[in-house]
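Exercise 7. Given the encoded structure of a 136-residue chain, write a plausible sequence.
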C-alpha cells in the first residue's frame, strides 16, 4: 500500500512538473528530460536488484529499490504529458483520430508483448531477465 501511494504521489508530481518544464523549455526537450529522469530511476533500481542478487546486501535495500521504482513515475507521468501535448500540437485535425487510434493500438500491443514476456520468464529465478528488459 505504501509503494502504491508513493508511486501515485510521484506520478502527481510529474504532472505538476511537466507543464512548468514545457513553459521553460520546448515540449520535446521537457519530454526528453523527464524520460531521462525515469530511465535514471529505473537504472538505480536495476543496479540495486543486480547487486543484491550477486550476494552483496546492505541494510534497507528493499526500501531504496521500491523508492527508485516509485520515483520513476515522476518521469513516466511527466513524459506522457509532454508526449500528449506534442501529439495534439503536431497532429492535423483531419488525421488526429487516425494518429491517436494508432498510438492506442501500439500501446496495447506493447502491453500484450510485456505480458507474453512475463509469462515466458515467470519463475522467481528469472525475474532478473524482466529487470534487464525494463532498461531497454
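Solution.
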Amino acid at each position: 500500500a505504501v509503494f502504491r501511494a508513493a508511486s501515485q504521489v510521484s506520478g502527481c508530481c510529474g504532472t505538476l512538473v511537466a507543464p512548468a518544464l514545457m513553459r521553460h523549455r520546448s515540449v520535446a526537450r521537457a519530454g526528453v528530460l523527464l524520460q531521462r529522469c525515469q530511465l535514471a530511476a529505473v537504472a538505480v533500481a536495476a543496479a540495486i536488484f543486480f547487486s543484491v542478487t550477486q550476494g552483496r546486501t546492505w541494510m534497507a535495500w528493499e526500501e531504496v529499490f521500491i523508492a527508485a521504482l516509485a520515483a520513476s513515475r515522476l518521469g513516466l507521468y511527466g513524459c506522457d504529458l509532454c508526449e500528449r501535448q506534442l501529439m495534439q500540437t503536431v497532429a492535423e485535425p483531419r488525421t488526429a483520430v487516425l494518429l491517436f487510434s494508432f498510438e492506442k493500438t501500439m500501446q496495447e500491443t506493447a502491453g500484450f508483448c510485456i505480458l507474453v514476456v512475463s509469462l515466458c520468464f515467470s519463475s522467481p529465478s528469472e525475474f532478473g531477465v524482466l529487470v534487464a528488459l525494463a532498461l531497454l
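Remark. The chain is about 85% helix and 0% strand. Students should compare their own answers with the one above.
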